[in-house]
Design a protein that fits this description.
With 192 residues, the chain is α/β, with parallel strands linked by helices. The protein has helices spanning 17-25, 40-50, 66-75, 94-101, 107-116, 125-147, 159-165, 175-182, and strands at 9-13, 31-35, 54-58, 78-82, 151-153. Strand 3, helix 3 and strand 4 (78-82) form a beta-alpha-beta unit. Helix 4 packs across helix 6 and helix 5 (107-116) crosses helix 6 (125-147).
């Protein structure tokens, strides 16, 4: 692997005028970014002022941030999606489970995975089925964000989950299902 150099990024969280001024002064040393712009107008001003190439927002079907996504697309800014899994709050929502089941793995595949990783006699089929549904919804939510053009930032320290999170390139969500997922927007913020 060839080293491509070092990129130092500076992320402004809840930007203030003082933070903006400091970031502008430090542009020669840092690549500025913006986290959670409060609305498209503020975001547009700050992204233009900072010559930013990336913006980080909470993004999932329950928090679509259409205004910020349009702004990023218009200015060629990479959109980074954090909390794409709703911090687990919506992983058992019936509408997500129903859509996810049309794209994902079967309970038998999850059972095989559990056995391979030391499933005990205390585990039962209901737990495995529940795990399969959660796994499917996780992959659906990650794929949804990717299809909307975002870089996804799912958080996990578990090696198996990290591997599962990366396994989202083997399917494509239909336009019909993307529309259904987009319609779930409720401006639900789980992090700010």
């Amino acid at each position: 692997m060839q080293c491509m150099g070092v990129c130092t990024c500076q992320q402004l969280h809840g930007p203030t005028p003082g933070g903006v001024t400091e970031s502008v002064q430090n542009q020669a040393r840092h690549q500025p970014g913006l986290s959670q712009p409060s609305n498209a107008r503020l975001g547009s001003f700050l992204l233009t002022l900072l010559n930013s190439t990336r913006a980080q927002i909470e993004l999932h079907p329950y928090c679509t941030r259409e205004d910020v996504q349009a702004l990023c697309k218009e200015h060629g800014i990479v959109l980074e999606a954090y909390s794409p899994l709703t911090k687990g709050l919506k992983l058992k929502e019936p509408v997500l489970v129903a859509i996810a089941k049309q794209y994902g793995v079967t309970t038998a595949q999850v059972l095989t995975e559990h056995i391979a990783h030391g499933m005990t006699h205390h585990d039962n089929l209901a737990q495995v089925t529940d795990c399969a549904c959660t796994w499917l919804v996780v992959q659906l939510l990650l794929r949804w964000a990717l299809q909307r053009g975002a870089v996804i930032l799912p958080k996990s320290v578990n090696a198996d989950r990290i591997k599962q999170n990366a396994d989202v390139f083997g399917f494509h969500i239909s336009d019909k299902h993307m529309s259904e997922l987009n319609a779930l927007n409720a401006n639900l913020a789980t992090g700010w």
